[in-house]
Amino acid sequence: MNRFSDRLYRSAQEIWTKSHNHPFLTELREGTLDPERFIYYLKQDYVYLIDYAKMFAIGSMKARDLDTMGKFAELLHSTLNVEMELHRQYAARFGISREELEQTRPSPTTVAYTKYLLDTASQGPLSEAVAALLPCMWSYREIGAAYMRVPGALEHPLYREWILMYGSEEFGALADWCVGLLDRLAEGLPEQELAQLEERFLVASRLEYMFWDMAYRLEEWPV
Ligand SMILES: Cc1ncc(C[n+]2csc(CCO)c2C)c(N)n1
To answer: Which amino acids are annotated catalytic?
Structure first.
């Protein structure tokens, strides 16, 4: 069967491979990542997730049926209460309060990524919103599943929980649902619209790469 998601996966392959080989991720899976870089990532990711959760709210609003509406509501709930709870627990280990996490000033890359997502979701049809939010869910699913199998990765005192969360069955199932939704939404669309969806997917994939890179560089505003 010819799935639109197969086309997206192929066209983003080069970008995703660069993410997988980025030192932030190679060092995280080997357990050598400097915690300072991880803390920076957690703080930026926390404010990223606040906007990302809003994408799910927009998804719920634009859904055409109750099942889809409910699934986005479930994703919104899980982002706020499961994924962000992991960040809160990590922050507590480093003496960073919930308030401090929430007050993180977004870096240039975080601003670029979150505003790109929210602009896409609010201006376009549901299919474009899903194309833009998919690299986040799908690439983390791939990373989590792969790192669960890296010998010793789950023994690391700091990175173990992170890997367990993204390697979990629940996260896998949510990502699969989003992939399937995009395939259904793309059915029968003309090539011009498919190309537009592909572009959203590729820009978000590049921004995912930039997010790892930003954290590794501890990016700051230049002025
Ligand atoms: C930059 C960045 N990209 C992707 C994720 C992963 N992620 C964000 S929301 C979601 C699904 C529901 O919570 C998943 C898997 C992240 N945390 N940060």
So the answer is: 208
* Tokens, residue 137: 């869910």
Distance 145 CA to ligand 1 centre (A): 14
Domain ranges of the chain: 10-217
Q: Output helix, strand, coil percentages for the chain, rounded to the nearest 5.
A: 80, 0, 20
Interface confidence: ipTM more than 0.85:
yes
In a mutational test of the pocket of ligand 1, which residue from 24, 40, 140, 203 has the highest number of ligand atoms less than 8 Å from its CB?
140
Helices (H), 94-190: 98-102, 108-123, 126-148, 160-166, 169-186
Atom of ligand 1 nearest to the CA of 208: 1
Alpha carbon 203 to chain centroid, angstroms: 13
Residue nearest (by alpha carbon) to ligand 1 atom 18 = 45
Residue 52 CA: nearest ligand 1 atom is: 9
Per-residue pLDDT band at 144 (split at 50, 70, 90): very high
Nearest CA to ligand 1 atom 14: 137
The CATH class, in words, for 10-217 is mainly alpha
